[in-house]
Amino acid sequence: MGIEAVANDLKGRVESSDFENSIKFDCGEDGVLVIDGNSISTDNKDVDCTIGVSFEDLQSLVAGDLDPTAAFMQGKFTIDGDMSIAMKLSQLM
What digits encode the pLDDT tens for the residues 29-38? Predict the structure, then answer.
């Protein structure tokens, strides 16, 4: 499964959400996943908050197998930008 497949898995949740910010999951060489309001893409662009995460951990977050708070506390990802936006992700995950 690649980054496009993860984007497709999240597409319905993102389009039906009331998420109003922009956030990027930066998986390094595996690509980026950008949520901007009710749209999702794999195009790299400037956002309000960037989460650095491995592709495997992103897959686990999307699947619901990895708790976002626990993952952050374990150092599985980093947050650059407005942390309050990252906390709003619970409505999408």
Answer: 999 999 999 9
